[in-house]
Amino acid sequence: MKIYGVALLAACFLMGKLLGRLLGHLINIDSDIGGVGFAMFLLMTSSIYLRKKKWLVLETEKGIWFWSSMYIPIIVAMTSTLNVKAALSGGFLAIILGISATAVCMLMVPLLSKIGRGKSIDSPKK
């Protein structure tokens, strides 16, 4: 049943890439604009919808949780290498702003982890 989690993730990824390409085309940029964000949004909304309709089997839900936890770090790593290449070719100010944004995000991790320690309603049932 975990294969359904992979199928849902793949469908969301393909739809996100399509929407990102469409958005890029609409604003005359030959690139994917926000495709990964669209894909993650579709994955979250579709899994919430399926859970509310009680169509989501426990094994499928575990598959979605597993692959979504693998998906996010891989995509972040891929996009960060592109951002570094763009920053290096963009000049000194782009590098300084990138380092500053990274430092602020790193400083926010302890605060965000304290906020998220409450009960989670979306965690899979054991």
TrEMBL record:
UniProt entry tagged with the keyword Cytoplasm: no
Any single GO CC term annotated in Swiss-Prot or TrEMBL for this entry: membrane
Keyword Secreted found: no
Regions that span the bilayer: 36-52, 64-84, 90-112
Pfam family, one: MadL
Keywords: Membrane, Transmembrane, Transmembrane helix
Record protein name field: Malonate transporter subunit MadL
Species for this entry: Flagellimonas lutimaris
